[in-house]
Amino acid sequence: MDRVCCWIAASVIQGIQYIIPKIERSHVVAPVLGLVLSGLLFGSLPANAASDVETAAMPPDIQRIIDRGSLIVALLDTDNPPFFMAGEGDRLDGLDVKLATDLAHGLGVRLEFNRSATTFNEVVDTVFNHHADIAISKISRTMSRIQRVRFSDPYLRMRQGLLVNRLRLAQQTNGRSVPETIRALQGQVGVIEGSSYVGFLNQKFPDATVVEYPTWDDTVDAVARGEVLAAYRDELEIKKVVRSSPNAALQMETIALTDTEDPIAMVLPWNSTHLLAMVNQYLDTERLEHSAETVLQDYADYFDVN
Amino acid sequence: MTIQTAIQLPRRVSLTWLKSPWAILVSVMLGVYIGSFHPVIANVIAPIGDLYLGLLKMCVFPILLSAITTSIGRLMTSRDAGQYIRRILIVFPLGLLLASMIAMIIAMVLGPGRDLSEATLKTLGVVVNNSGINLEMSLTGPLPQEETTNIASFFIGMVPDNIFLALSEGQTLKVLVFAIIFGVSLGLLKDAQSNSVFDILDAIFQSFNQLIQWFTLILPFGLCSLLAYQLSRQGTDVMLAMINFIGVTLATFFIIYVLNTLIIWQQSKQSFWSVLSAVREPAILALATSSSLACLPSAIAQLSGELKFKRQTVNLVTPLSITLCRFGSVIYFALGTIFVAQLYQTSLGVTELIVVVFGAVFAGMATSGVTGVLTLTMLGLVLEPLQLPLEAVLVLFIAIDPLIDPFRTLGIVYSGMATTAIIADSESN
Asked: Using the 8-state DSSP alphabet, how is residue B323 labeled?
């Protein structure tokens, strides 16, 4: 079922790309060349506009969505509560889904999801390749990602966190306080393969050894087993672990790093400038800036076991 | 029935019926009933218990200071000094190590932390989560200064740099050390003037003892209110999840109680029933007040009064053993350490077990300088050398402490009395 949806979504997008054809695709191959070519693209836009008055009345990125009658939002294929997860019936629910719904409503179009991506980086690629208009999928702003796409203002500011195996940490303290031990963290720390935290780890904990796991569940399991000393991810995911499976709380402790940040933002194709302005205006007007605490509170029902 | 007739005759001047075991039994039962079924009433009558506890505590420091100073001072002038000091130096450490070892073995045999069910772990985890002990820290900037407890700071902390501050802040350990030093110097004066100081201190001791005797008249009221309030604030969820550990702890304290009773009985050379009746008051007080200090006057009075141990020795040894030895805490920490090791599935070798025995003794004694939740954090002194984590289990220990604390206090007071019984000679000898 999912595959059929994806196929339909993909063919719809391909249909749209008919408007801006081969030039776009070449970005993938040669970004530098892409810059030059995109200059050509924008150069060619007024020419298009001259021939078609109706298109000229609207910014092209918005026009594309209006013509299609739907906003395509890229979303990771696996559910990630409280951001996107199965809600009542076959509808999706969550913070990201709510934002997407509001945006589609603002544009006066239907909402469609493209859930073909299996990793967060693939979600970014989906947008970059114009297989979606926007990604609202708990994407962290990073320097490597912004080279290819644009980020909205953050709608959720989180801190980074560590999920630490209590026993392993107690073996490392040697009379030092916990903050002191964490600052000079040594030993193996688990992160999700290819996630932004691989880079964060090298930057914040240079003495620690990176161990990459294919999924977050694998990483958490490794901490529970004591295979690695800690797992490194955003504060929210860390706290979710002990909230949703309380029996882990005896084995693992959560540490929020107060002077770190993991801003979560929406991802747009670099040339969707007007949609970007619209998204930022929406975030600004609604004063949408969540924190890990507010999100955990608002969506407590989804992972609290009491 | 006898109680009813007694209550119907309040006009009589005699209030001795308030001292009868029946009055105490009735007040205990009433307290248990109110605490279990009427928590609101328990809260309303709580001030009566606080008042009673306040009156008892009021007498503790004068008694502590005068009893120890005079008995040490007199000991210095008597020829038995060396003998008593030797006995104290042998009996205290041996008793503590023995208590620690017994608790450790019981915990290892019964295994309260082994094979806990998923559901139990889940309940415990929810408790830990709800406690909000998530650590927040920064990676840069100055490190937060933490109060650390180690052996060196413990010994430095024993000496009061200002005795009046120590007295007004109620720092028992410091007052104790001061009283010992003061008593030694007074005893060594060998001057007629020092005798008048001893007389003054004696008068203080006697008058406060008299006060304590009068307070036993309101014991039934205080007891009822204290018990009712204590019972009304027990949480059931954690208690059920920790049932294994609580069971093992209570069983251990019961075994220690029986052992101590036998020791006191042997040493006092009185009938078993009169021993039981003599220790009743401090035991009930311990359970009701959860304050070993508040029981100190009663313990001294019963040992030197009813059980006829030498007054001077009792005056010295009982305050020392109750405030310094803290058998109840030592036993609890030995149990707790084994529980944590089992919970984290860490097997302990011979070296580690020796660390447990000695560490529990040290951590237990370290509780004499602190009150409240800090008492339980001393468990860290044992867990750290064993490389076991404290934070999560500390939350659990705090959660069950309203139930454990009375029994731990009983362990402290009662073992202190038994230790005194071993060291002190009976007056009939």
From this structure: I
